Request: fold
Amino acid sequence: MRSQQTLTDPKSNDTYGIGWAMYPDQGHEVVGHAGGHWGYFAKAEFIPDLKLGVVIMTNCNYPQGDIGPEKNLTQIIYEKFIPVLEKKESKPVFDPKTIDLNKYTGSYSVQGGYANAEVFIRDDTLHFSLIEKPDFNARILPLNLNSFYFANDPGKHEMFNFYIDETGNINSLKFLSYVFKKNNK
Reply:
């Protein structure tokens, strides 16, 4: 629906897909659709690369155009949020290849011997295995330096948290509500 279906208007730089207008604003492509009649007006716009959307609905005496408050309100929203989102986008992205997986490996136990786990590396990926349940052997991937998720979870929900001591060494692991202390070698 966002594939260009018309020539770009040389005056406004607008073009149209199927039901969506597309135009540049503050260096970003804006996609939107507006409409109304005497007494009301609505529009929805979004900036895909910033994942920012604006929906405005208003009662008014003009069907649409550049004369209503929605145009000014949209610009106010863009002026406030685009710089914030651009800064967020410019932050360095966590690169999981930069972490040393070896520091997480080892044997872990819940106090009282209730459960025991082994964290090890196989095929350049960290694995978590419950000793009492040998079939529970899961690949885990990093979200950041100390939080991991199940490799087969497309939502990347945080499931494992590793904690460090004052010397910077891993001393425990939390999985669900269980805290596993790292066993000394």
User: Anything to note?
Assistant: The chain is about 10% helix and 45% strand.
